[in-house]
Amino acid sequence: MIRLLFLVLLLTLAGPQVRGRCAGPPTPGVPDSLLAHANSVVLSHDKEYHVTSLRTATVRDRWVILLLNGKHNAENVIGTSYDDESKITTFEVSATDAFGREFFRARKADITDERYTSEGTFLQDRWVRYTTVPCGAYPCTITAEVERKLTDFAAMEFPHWAPVARDQSLVSATFTATVPVDNELLFDERGVGEPEISSDGKERRYRWQLANLCAQVTEPLAPVETETLPFVRVALADFQINEYRGSFRDWQSFGAFIGRIMEGRDALPSPLAFEVNQLVEGAADEREKVDRLYRFMQTRCRYVGIQLGIGGWQPFSASYVDQHRYGDCKALSNYMAAMLREVGIASYPVLIQSSEVPSYAIGPEFATSAFNHMVLYVPSQDMYLECTSTYAPPGYLNESTLDRGVLWITPEGGELARTPPLEPADHGHLRTVTQTITADNTVDFRLRSTHYGAAQELFRSLGAYIADRRDQLEWLHHRDFLPDVSGSEYSYEVSRDAPEVSLRYATTLNNRLRNLGKRRFFPLNPYPQSWVPDLQEERTLPVDYHNTRFLVDTVHVSFPADLEIETGLFRTPVVLEHAVGEYRAEMRPEQDGVTWIRTLKLRPARLPAGEYADFRQFFVEVAKAESVQLVLREKRTK
After folding, report:
1. Whole-angstrom distance, CA of residue 391 vs CA of residue 384
2. Sorting pLDDT into bands at 50, 70 and 90, what band is 3?
3. CATH no. of 32-240
4. Is residue 606 packed enough to be buried (19+ CB in 10 Å), middle (13-18) or exposed (0-12)?
5. pLDDT at residue 241, as a whole number
6. Where are the beta strands (DSSP E) in 68-219?
């Protein structure tokens, strides 16, 4: 992964939309309006960003925060990050109780320095310094001051400003950025307004200020915080990392900078170049060449995340990867691009943010380094290649990289693009279950399913990382894909060339029926979709729903000839529709039982806060329709 370019402050002073400005000036006693719905109050937070050259800057934070109860979001942990190109010059933390008596002042023994690690990263030169304030009683007030001096690529870690968090109110906060007049601060502000700008002829100063903001209650399925709270994201028009000059004036300029630091690192060793040409010999077309080389890379190299120095941006050379047989996302993408270039196929490195939901949605109007991953794009095939995966089929992007803004690094510079959208028809499953009720009340259970697109990702990783059959069964049962682990039949097939995984399973179940007198109660659907959003009487934030699936289930139930369905059989299909989905279930009587067929299509949607109740009700009705229960009894005689 590309190093995450953000200031690691464990204050977690980032959260959702502020409900609104509160009346009255800030007071030492904190007005009642600022206490409502709050677990903490930012009494003051002043951030200063002073750029002293293309390569150096200073960031200083001073804040006072009042913790009202133990529900705060770990705001008693004060920390900051540093590395070889940044230096902490001030780290002071103290705390007072409800009577203003100081009970804590951080000393050397109270401060911890440890290496910072992120998911998928083996080694990086990033450290975190932090201390934990022991607030044994509430309220308590924490005062802190942290200053860092940044050099070289650390200067790209622009201190974006998110002054207030969810369930937190704010009395006063300022953000001041000062840059030389021959440079320029670029910014994207949301809910803050334009800054006051002044200049003394040598430096230009930008200043934002906020006061008296009431707490916004945490709400499920809310948009990301950068969309819904006061937020300023900044960048420098011009900067320098080592000998490389760069610019964020536009996407083309930033992409050109990335291209420059990757130059000359795609030369293949002669033996590898010869092997690459041998591999594609006889290929029917360019697509087959891409497929062969991608498979070759998957078997030859493995992903290892190492982010040291400028290596957070600059990949290992292709020759290094070939020698050591590993690399991070940049190195493996560069390696794959080098092999494609050897056989005459052009490709572009692609900067992307890999996450369930991008924390910051990039747009054409503001160039920024809001990326943490790199993949490869082959324009002639309109194909993206995930080069860190050893098991994905060629051209497959997982759900965490689809439908988002990305930056192609082309020979002409950066070009903003978007990965393919998430379409329900491409992500889901086709599943058939046959349940045969026997005379002795056991159930012969048979499952046949094919999972595709994003719905197959978990299954494909199972095949890649868990070889033992018993362990696979335990894994699937633990996640409710299988009813037990003692089945008589089990097969698991992963498609080599398509994002599909097929599952077969057969077992005998002793606990599916419940007898009550002469009646037998049988839950028809073994895989009910039962998720229902939390109940909310009042909603202030929009609903941001991201699930994308098309699920088709067919369940056959047969039973002995001396039984009949007393209740549970319905003749009219159940049809439910909403902006986020469509549901249809129908039941077909058979000679020896019944067949139930259900389709559920789910799609992303952004809904106004006032539509939350209807949104939730759709899933309530789906869950109700899914809980189909047959009541069987002995056939009545005439």
Report:
1. 15
2. very low
3. 2.60.40.3140
4. exposed
5. 87
6. 77-83, 86-96, 102-105, 111-115, 123-124, 126-132, 140-151, 168-180, 185-190, 196-199, 203-213
Tokens 């077309």 -> residue: 285
Cα–Cα distances (Å) from 138 to 75, 146, 493, in that order, read: 13, 24, 57
Q: Match 């934002």 to its residue by tokens.
A: 208
Backbone conformation region of residue 50, classed left if phi is above 0, alpha if psi is from -120 to 50, else beta = beta
Nearest to 309 by CA among 266, 261, 343, 359: 261
Q: Decide if pLDDT at 300 tops 70.
A: yes
Protein fold of 250-418: C8orf32 fold (3.10.620)
Q: What is the predicted pLDDT for the residue at 243?
A: 86
- The token duo for 87 is 């230096």
Cα(67)–Cα(46) distance, rounded to whole angstroms? 18
Are residues 582 and 460 in contact, defined by beta-carbon separation less than 8 angstroms? no
pLDDT at residue 154 above 60?
A: no
**Reduced to 3 states, what is the DSSP secondary structure of residue 449?**
strand
In terms of Cβ atoms closer than 10 Å to its own Cβ (0-12, 13-18, 19+), residue 562 is: exposed
- Residue pair 385/332 in contact (Cβ under 8 Å)? The answer is no
88 three-class SS: strand
Q: Where are the domains of the chain?
A: 32-240, 250-418, 443-509, 514-638
Phi, psi torsion values for 566, nearest 5 degrees: -85, -50
The residue written with tokens 């095939």 in the block is 381
Determine the Cα–Cα distance for residues 512 and 523; give it in Å rounded to an integer.
7
Share of the chain above pLDDT 90, in %: 77
> DSSP string spanning 217-229?
---TTPPPHHHHS
pLDDT in tens, 474-523: 999 999 999 999 999 999 999 999 999 999 999 999 989 988 888 999 99
Q: Strand, helix or coil at 538? A: coil
| Residues 174 and 63: beta-carbon distance below 8 Å | no
Q: ω into residue 483 within 30 of 0, thus cis?
A: no
How many CB atoms sit inside 10 A of residue 131's CB? 21
Residue 363 DSSP code: B
CB 76 within 8 A of CB 135: yes
Q: Which CATH number is correct for 514-638, 2.60.120.1130, 2.60.120.260, 3.10.20.30, 1.10.3470.10? A: 2.60.120.1130
Q: Are 143 and 35 in contact (CB under 8 A)?
A: no
User: Mean pLDDT, the chain, as a whole number?
Assistant: 90
- First and final C-alpha spacing in the chain: 73
d(CA 285, CA 304): 32
Q: Which residue has the tokens 């705001």?
A: 75
Q: What is the C-alpha separation between 230 and 190, in angstroms, rounded? A: 6
Q: Read off the tokens for 237.
A: 């028009």
Q: DSSP letter string over 556-572?
A: EEE--TTEEEEE---SS
In 436-523, alpha helices (H): 457-465, 469-478
Q: Which residues pair with 239 in a beta bridge?
A: 246
Long-range CB contact pairs, 272-276, < 8 A, 24+: 272/318, 272/322, 272/339, 273/342, 276/339, 276/342, 276/343
In this structure, are residues 351 and 258 in contact, taking their beta carbons and an 8 Å threshold? yes
In whole angstroms, give the CA distance from residue 595 to residue 553.
10
Q: What are the tokens at 96? A: 């007072």
CA distance 287 to 127: 44
